[in-house]
Every structure is written in structure tokens, then in C-alpha cells.
Write a structure and sequence with these properties.
This protein has about 775 residues and is an alpha/beta fold. The chain is built from 26 helices and 18 strands. Strand 5 (about 220-225), helix 7 and strand 6 form a beta-alpha-beta unit.
Length: about 775
Amino acid sequence: MPASDSQTYIVNDQPTERDALDFTPYVETLADIIQTGNTPLTIGVFGGWGSGKTSLMKMVQNGIPNKDYKGLPTDFTVAWFDAWKYDKEETLWRAFLLNVLFAVELKSGETDELKTLKTMLYRGLEFEKTGGVTIDLAKLGAKVAEGAIQIGLSFIPPLATLADMVKELQKSGKGSIEGGFESAIQRERTKIYVEQVRSLEQFQEKFATLIKSYISPNRLVVFVDDLDRCLPEKAIQVLEAIKLFLDVQDCVFILGIDQDVIARGIEMKYKDVKDKKDAEGKPQFTIEGIKYLEKIIQLPFQIPPVIQDDMGKFVEGLSNDWAHEDCHKVFAEGLGDNPRNIKRMVNTFLMLSKLAEKRKEKLKEAVKPIRLAKVVAIQAAHPDLFNLLLKEEPRYLRELEEYYLAETSQERQMEKGEAGAESSSPLGRGQGEGKTEPPPALVPFLSQRGSAAVRRILTMKHKPETQDATFAGLPTDELKVYFTLTRSAEAPQAAPPPAEVARLVFEPQMIRIPAGTFLMGSTQEQAAQAIKDGADKNWVVWEQPQHTVELSEYSIGKYPITNREYQAFLREVKGQTPPRGWDGDQFPAEKGGHPVVNVSWDDANAYCKWLSEKTKKNYRLPTEAEWEKAARGEDGRVYPWGKVFDPKKANTAETGIGDTTDVGKFSNSDPALSGDSPYGCADMAGNVWEWCGDWFSEKEYQRSSPVDQARAGNIVKDPQGPEKGKSRCLRGGSWGSSEVSARVALRNYRHPISRSYYVGFRVAVLPSG
């Protein structure tokens, strides 16, 4: 245990004989069976890598009673065979048999019977070492036809016999080997094979006599561990050797077995029937494999899943240096029931926690322990997802958590039978008005193995007073800190090929905007205030009059298109000019999550066409009306968050950043702190100006909604802008704009072929698209 808080304590991965997972009932049961069960007996302890097989077997070994069921003393002979230590041996089965004989020798001493058995094992070795030899008769002096005759035999007799055969060949002087001599070689091969079979039978008989003489009425108990660390074919060798003892009384074998390793070994053994199927269509080798194990193992025992409370106690006991009481719960609840895997990730967490404290970049203040525990746990539970978050878009973690929390809330409502709980979304639950779908790049991961664990991790309940436990609303640059730190504990991996990157991130995240009306443009009071704050009055007039617009349902990008999303487009569309500042199809370093800039309207439109072809949806640039409704909602507010400008909610000139920022940087789960629109759209004030689909006209509002019509309450339906023009519309302001240009009603324009470091875009799509 720690002597001071400054030390780092790493958990070792050695098997434990202390029961931290409530194995005691299983240990006692197996120990009783070993003592009282009919023999010969083979028990298979099945479990995957790191499931606790060795620890349980060690406990069983220590739990073998020293008295039998009649109360009489027992004197069991126990052998422990670590298969992996001999994996490099040519014949693993021989090492296993010798290990068993050595255990008996401790009880009986070095007897003649034992010497004989050892000799028999090494005699088999002599046969094998001389087997498969190719004999060059010319080099041996045989008078044969031109050149050398090569004889390769699957079994070559002992050297003395071979020498006799060579002498006979030399005496014959024949130009070929034929007749009786060839038959003699074949008979010699058969003789050797028969001797080997007879030797194994004699070994079994002599071993049974040895056990009866020196072990009975007690028992020989042999534990075979770590078969799952051997090559599959080597593991099968040990099982083959155990067959020698299947009829020997007072022998008990306990085998630690990983089903997958044995399955691969059996498949190799029965490879000749691999593609064959039985009458019911089941693979023949699977059937043979089941029969194979049934012949060897009389009692299969599956390592049971660990009860959650027991796992919680186990993880908590791995360290007394937890930074928060919920940290150990993350690993216990999120990583299932594999003790070895949990130990490994706890070590990673402890190391990274200490590393954060020692880093100069104020990581100690930036890295919160529960969040760090969750990132490390996700790394273990779903490596593919973790790599995407690490190398592509850390913000997806925040959005995935939001999605899972919304989905969980929706499920609870459905369980309670609350109205409106059902959804017609193809993705299922949690898709209400203004709610986001999971990022399309993450959809492939939601059905993969490990996604359930990620969901448990991200939806953990915490006490109300627990701070810094979730990622909701965390700015992207703060999210990056966790992945920058976690990279220190990442094993080196090859970068995904460009095609794989494109597959993962090409489709943007969308938000559904419901059909209905909203107030578009500025009121006279809003216009006057804008002019007072420094807006050009000649521009402000383009925003008037304010009028009611009705829009059909549509979806719009939650964020502007990022560099990484645009990169996928560039890598697939030949001849497309990269934005200024790129190196070919590579965006500027550390800006994968920034909005793409230096793209013309034509570039943005080409991107929409490419995206439509890839997704079979009708993506396009949003109209001015669609953009403005998504930015301000239905109530005519001035900024996405309300009536008053707040420099903490948008990347404008007032922030002093002086460049683009990661999309979503100013999002927050607390509406009072978030710069998002009422529908959840981010970066609609500042960061980059955004292209819209409309041609620009200074008098569009007066043309489409004259003042008298607006006063009469007439409603404009799905406006598309002028049919032609010289410039295309821009909306939203940029990182270089002042607060008056970040107003959602402000209208701007540029020539469609122009490019600027201040200009990017987002996309829209109709429901049918």
C-alpha cells in the first residue's frame, strides 16, 4: 500500500491465491469433486484470456482437503504444468509426460518403473530424430545408375539397422532398387510404427501399475495451465497425451482452457473436413471437435461471470490511490468481467494520472480523474472507436455521450409509458425535434462489439455534487487534452489508409429542423440598435422588413464542414483544387476539426454533389431562410443564444483568438453557457462566414414580402432567392468579424468563384433526400 501520495503503484498481473472475486463456492465444489469423484477424471476449466483461470486453479490446488470424506488423512500427489514454458519444445506432450513422472517420483523415489517409463519416452525421441531423413546412396558408395537415388521415408529405422541396409545395397550392385529389398524397407517402416504403438500401450500399462503401487488409494492431481498461451497445435498435443491416462484409476486432470485456442487447434487437426457439412448443414470439423473434447473432458466448468458487486470490490482493492471514488466504478461497470484486462487499464489510468500531475502544461488542472478513467476504459472496451476519437475527431466523444444520454432518457420514458416516447427515426430512440442523431462517422461503431460497454461508461450515474464527470458541453480543445495524454499509453499502430479515413468521416452530422414558421430579418428596433453598435446602415436595410416565413421540414449540418470531412472529398474527386494553405490533400496540422476555409461557392456546391452521390441523399447548400431559422429558432432573436451579444459564446474578433477554432468549441450542455442555436446548431455566429444556396439581392425581402403584405400577415413559403444574380449569399460572421456581423439576420455576399480565409459552409438535406 502507498506510503505517500507522491508514489505511483502499479498492479501486477500475477495470479492471486486471494479470493477477490467470490470464487470460494466454486473452489470448494471443485476441490470436493477432486477428492470424491470417480476416477479417472478430467475437468476442463473454460475461460478466455485473463478471466481468472489460473487464480481459480491455484485456489483449488490450495483447497484440496487434507482429509477425505471419512475423516481419514489424505496425501494427494499434485503436479502443476505451465504449458507456455515449454511451447518452444518440439514435442510439448513429452515435456508434459515427464512433468507428471517427476511429480510421481517425489512420492515414490527413483524406481525402476520410473526409469523404464522415462526411457520409453526418449526411445520415441530416437525414432523421431532419425525420421524424415533423405539418403543419398551415391555418397554412400552404392553402385547404382548415373546420379544419386534419393530415398525418403516417413519413418527411418534406428541407425544400426540403416547401416545394415546400406551394406546390402552396396553388395547388390544393382542399378535400381527393386524386388525384395524395397519390400524390406517397407516392412522395416511398418515394424517401427508397430513398435511405437506398442511402446505407447506399454507406457500406459506401466504407468497404471506405478500409480497403483505408489499413489493409490490417494490421487494424482495434475493441473495444466496456460494452454491458451501455446500455439493451437501444441495445445492439442497436450490433450493427446492426456488420452494415455483416460483409463488410469486415481488420476485427476484439471485443464485451464481457452475455447478459441482449442477450437483453432481442432480445426487444424480436422482440416481435411473443414469445408464439409453434415445433413443439418453444421460444419463437420465443429462436430468432430465437440466429440474430441467430450472424449477427453468429463466435467466442463465455465468460469462464471463476476457479479457486479464483487467486481466493484475487486477493482476498488487494486489501489488505495483513487483520485475519486467513482474512478474504480468506471472500470468495474464498463470493462466487464475480465480481471486481467481491468488490471491493465487500471495501471494505464494510474500512470496517466501521475503523468498529468507532473506535466508543465497545467494538465493537473485540466485533466479530471473521472473523465480520464472513462477515456482509458473506452480505449480498452472499443479500440477502434478510441482510435477514431484519438486520431480524427475528439468532439465525437461529447456527441456520442449526448446521444446515449438522450437515448437512455427516451427508453426510461417508454418504460414509464409516457406520451411521445416513440420515434419514427430509422435510428430508433432519442430523436426528437432539434435533437441530434449520432455522428454518421460513429454509426458503424454503434453495432460493433464493445459498444455496449462504451454506453455503460458514458451513461454512468454520478452523485449530484460530483463535478467534471461527463463530457457534455466540454469544448473541443479541452477534450483534446485527454487524448493527447492518453496517446502516451497507446501502442504504436499503422495509420489508416486514406480510403479508410474517408469511409469513417465523410458524412457530416445533421440536425432535423421541424416544419413551421419563424421570424426572418430584423425589426426596426433591432436595425436601429445594430446601427448604433457600428453596423453599416446601408447593409442593415437589406435585413428589412422582418417577416414571417414558413419552411418545410429539412435537416442542416450541426457544424460547418470541417477540414477532415472536406479531405475525404478531395481524395476521391480528381482535379479538385485544394484550399489555399493545404499541402495537396493534407490540411494544415492540428486543424482537422476546424471548418474548411478558402473554398468557393462552386467548391462547396461540388462537395454537395459528391456527398449526394456517396450517400444517395440530396445534399445541397441551405437557403438563406433555412440557415436563418436553424440559427435563431422561431422567436426572432438577435444571436443564436438570445438578444444580447456574449463574447464567451462565439469566435468573433472580440475573443482575440485571431483564427478559426474547432467546430463546437463554444457548445455547452448548459444553455446559459452555450453558443448553440435553439435547435442545437453550433458556430452559427462567428468562426466562418457560410455560403448559402441563394443568389444575393439587396431588395429580396422587399420583393418577396412587401411591407404592406408583411403587416397583413401574409406568409412567405420556402423562399429560394432570385433566379439569377452575380453573387451568392453569405451568413453568420467569422473569427475576424465584430459582434454586429455575427447577428443571425445579417446578410453578406461574395462572387461564387471567390475564396477567402474567412469563408466556409455547411450543408442541408430534405427528409426525402
